Amino acid sequence: MVPSVPVSVDLVVLTVRNQALSALVWRRDNPPFLRRWSLPGGFIQLDEDLPAAAHRILAERAGLPGAPVHLEQLQTYGYPDRDPRQRVLSVAYLGLAPDLPASEKAHMSWQPVSSLTVMAFDHRRIMLDGVERARAKLEYTSLSAAFCPPEFTVADLRRVYEIVWDRSLDPRNFHRKVTKAEGFLLEAGATTTRDGGRPAKLYRRGPAELLHPPMLRSLKE
Amino acid sequence: MVPSVPVSVDLVVLTVRNQALSALVWRRDNPPFLRRWSLPGGFIQLDEDLPAAAHRILAERAGLPGAPVHLEQLQTYGYPDRDPRQRVLSVAYLGLAPDLPASEKAHMSWQPVSSLTVMAFDHRRIMLDGVERARAKLEYTSLSAAFCPPEFTVADLRRVYEIVWDRSLDPRNFHRKVTKAEGFLLEAGATTTRDGGRPAKLYRRGPAELLHPPMLRSLKE
DNA sequence: ATAATAGTGTCTGTTAGACATTATAAC
DNA sequence: GTTATAATGTCTAACAGACACTATTAT
Q1: Most exposed among A8, A38, A176, B23, judged by the fewest C-beta atoms under 10 Å?
Q2: What is the mean pLDDT of each run of 10 residues along chain B (221 residues)?
Q3: Nudix hydrolase domain spans which residues (chains A, B) (predicted)?
Q4: Nearest to residue B98, comparing CAs of B41, B193, B24, B202?
Q5: Which residues numbered 75-114 in B keep a CB inside 8 Å of some CB on A?
Q6: Do both B156 and B69 map to the same domain?
């Protein structure tokens, strides 16, 4: 006799908006945790793969169909009373997105991570785990570009690092490191003066997934 | 109506034995995959937490009760037909252990990772994901010491890195880096001449979990 | 012209990797 | 003594961080 458990997929979708690292959340309109912020999620269907469920929930529940979101599995949360109604196992996925137009769904909104101090279930823990994963991965992968639109400047990319890490970075050293890292950035050819001053070159994501050398967040401020 | 799925916990327990990175596996004695190597695993019980299930399986199924094994969640595998009999979601855990006495269980043995080219279900994929996680974590955490007995020499630790990474490392540079890394090693006071030559100091694990600076596997051999 | 931002160069201290040398045991 | 391994030291090239300087736009 093998016990079965309902399995949900919950999403920690992060973006950089208004100078703040923000997560996609919705306000619950039913008990338990009525009116608390909650991560978008849903139960997996029979014969549905986990990544497929994550993409379906991103489209249907989160209201971001077809959005260019990097999705990767985060962790699985399973202690028995994390949902007071019944035991639910939750496979969390981490999504990184550029600053998108608002979700089409009612009750769904981007909220700064720092403001989400109280959430439904164990969703705050899940969200914080996702934030820490994102912070760590910016060091040794090229995922920072997942927070940017298809074409972006070095300054755009620097602001992503500064906001996600909550640190200021020297623009000149950052420029040198990021343009020297093999396969990180490809010149798009065009420039922009949207930020004023000398025109900035536009770049696209390069083929590299891992950064050599990595962008280390040093110990000092 | 919420679909439920049986959930198993499978273990990738790794150790360094006979100059080889080895995993704890057993030979299946039932179909499907009769006689294939398989990871130790079992279904979670009602009201059982995931880490608790992992420890229970380590003791009962793997035959290593009370062994000093570092356990951490690896990943969750859920595509629908990974078990041909019925859909099973598997939460994999990674375990790192010193060279232990053999498991008490029949059919259970340590096999070199490189020899496990064919396994039951998707267990080879799971095992390789665990190996890659272990390789990566040796770089920036102090987990290498989890492969060592409570007291060990710098040379012991170096052999762990060399075998897990399949690289040779310069003993002198390794010694300098590892003894300078803050909180990595604590002198145990004693020495040993078990390897011949000048007596080597014995160390214990220090309090640090993260290494500053990290032990990078460089690009070159 | 001034202001603002982009991009390059220079200097210095730290670190990685290569490798010489010394230290302490067994035989 | 020789041999084996441990531990320390030296040198050089690469890199991080601090910061001066030049380049190109808008006003």
Answers
A1: A176
A2: 92 96 95 95 95 96 88 97 94 95 78 97 98 96 96 97 96 96 93 92 95 77 43
A3: 3-133
A4: B24
A5: 75-76, 78-80, 87, 89, 91
A6: no
